[in-house]
Model the fold of this input.
Amino acid sequence: MFNFANSSNAFGLFVVRLLAMVALLSLSGCSLFCRYCPEEGPECCEDFAQVGTVEGNGNNWVFLWIAAYKDTYVDSHDPRTFACVDDLRVAFFPRGELDIVLRRTYVDFVMPQLPAGSNITEAYLNLYNPASRGDGTSDNILIPVREARAYWPACTLTWATQPEPNNVFVGNGNFQLRLRSQSWFGTENIDSTVRRMFDNPNTNEGFILYLPAPPQGEQSAQKAFWSNNHRSRTATDVGLAPRLLVRVRLPSGTDASEIVMPPLPADNDLGALGDAVRILRIAYAANSNSPWPPGWEVARGSLPIP
Done:
């Protein structure tokens, strides 16, 4: 005869074990939407010569989709490195009465070399949020972004080895990202910042995302986004990795074939993708007012760009 009591007990034990596993993953820095934990998976930090490849063409006005070449996050309560995991994180939340967990995301881009006389008129930093209220709190928040001022190695960076002091990660940063659920989210136009990065590539150290202390009475939060090592990114597809989107006017008599992608720096975290990795997508724009390619789903602040 079937024993319902024993069946119920067995199911209850299964649920307890499942919840314990979820808790362990959360504490370890793994997530339910990661393919693997920080110490597992393909070796994204393998060091060998790699080139960034380009797809698309155009002349006069062009759109650029520049995928990140390195990214990671750091955790105030976890000494490990996270360059090879699927997600990036920001957090400010209490753990116990006197303890606070902080997480920061680092992301950087290799700028293609534009023909002399090119003019950048629009630029947006975009990341992809796969969740809706993934931490149980509203996604209707702003995430401060700070321009990184010092070199950071994605494959070895930890909370303790961050090159900038903690007291600079306060307030609203240099600009902000408007988080959106289950979609790309982005900044307002940061063309002056990106123009400077193109003009001075040797001093470009990318961006740092963080969450400051919430205002009195408001909830703390922890949010996650897809990284360079999300499964959507392959050797020939930029996928859902962090991206810079740039509108450029090329000089008369030139076209996008003269945009040159330099070799990937050795400190990238794309080693699992081989020796040739898609970094840049180019699309034609008829003029300064041409709408962005609809398939790109470009995000600016809290709204898609028309």
